[in-house]
Amino acid sequence: MRGKETLKGLRPYTPGRPIEEVQKEYGIEKIVKLASNENPFGYSNEVKKFLQETVTDLQLYPDGGAVALKEALAEYYQVETEQLIVGAGLDEVIQIVSRAYLTPDDEIIVPDPTFPQYAHHAIIEGAKVIKVPVDEKTGEMALEDMLKEVTENTKIIWLCNPNNPTGTYVSQEKITRFLEQVPKNVLVISDEAYQEFVTIEEESSTLAVLEQFPNLMVMKTFSKAYGIAGLRVGFGIASRDIIQILEVTRLPFNTNSLGQQAAIVALKDQDFIKETSRINREELTAWESFLEKYEMPYYVSQTNFIFFSVGDKDQEVTQYLLEQGFIIRGGLKPGWLRITIGLPEDNETLRKHLLAYLAK
Ligand SMILES: *Cc1c(COP(=O)(O)O)cnc(C)c1O
User: Fold this and answer.
1) Which atom of ligand 1 is nearest to the CA of 222?
2) 222 in Cβ contact with 266 (< 8 Å)
3) pLDDT over 90 (residue 205)
4) Coarse DSSP helix, strand, coil percentages of the chain, rounded to the nearest 5 percent
5) Domain Aminotransferase class I/classII large spans what residues (predicted)?
6) How far apart are CA 226 and CA 270, in angstroms?
7) Is the pLDDT score of 270 beyond 90?
8) N or C: which end of the chain has fewer CB within 10 A?
9) Is 180 exposed, middle or buried, given 0-12, 13-18 or 19+ CB atoms closer than 10 A?
10) Average pLDDT, whole number, for the chain?
11) Separation of 174 CA from ligand 1 center, angstroms?
């Protein structure tokens, strides 16, 4: 049985290696996974309590409409519940959008490099992917260059802000100016999976201009700062019109009961998010000082990961670190590595290993 023609050049997603596998292969007890930008502090104590004490009714189907979660999100983000769509992770929302909007006649525009799932699903739908390189020096999305690629076939422009894997952030003001120039029949999506880590501006979310631009959609997730990647909850916020279209392609019971309920509890504990972000910032600063001291080029990050160059030895470095018990992410750009900001003591050990390798 052959798959669809569009699947030909595509591969299944390869996640960061599981901890147990690395433990076995190298016979190391302590493995630190810094490859998928999870929260090293785990999740809110409130969520822990909830999971231990309160989970009930798992024999029933989940609330397909995620009503309670949407109400909590609507209140927190000051939008209507009809402006929300919830997915089994943001990954699923990306798939839903692609399925609802893209045909083989369409084009999407993405930064390069960026989160690969935007292009992946566009290709499955037969759409054409236009990749626009980020600014080589700063790593920032090149919004002007992206605008130049807009044609009458453009259906979606994907922005990732801050961008994964570069970690760089584009100001709210620049995004607004960009939106003003994009034709109204083009859907602009701002993936803000890492927005909770941004520390440079009071108002860092594109949500502030949602009313102004009916062709704008903002995406967020509980997998990164909120720390419940394993429960799979992500969501999108847009105009009612867009959400109505997306709801048609969403599976009836896409998110599970546990995830929905835990997300409500997690959303309430903003102190946990603040503390996560505060320590992350300190640790990011330590990484920046280290990379500057040893003259390794890096992009300025507003996320919980940092992207830097180790010259042409990226694969050897990745392998060496793996043998020391650290799973990190290479293969995103030749010579460059992406490291999730981990616990303070793990960051320090990792820097020592990195230095030991480079001094060889
Ligand atoms: C991790 C990530 C996602 C997917 O998150 P899930 O909610 O776990 O599916 C989406 N976009 C970006 C940019 C990410 O880094």
Assistant:
1) 7
2) yes
3) no
4) 40, 15, 40
5) 30-350
6) 9
7) yes
8) N
9) exposed
10) 94
11) 23
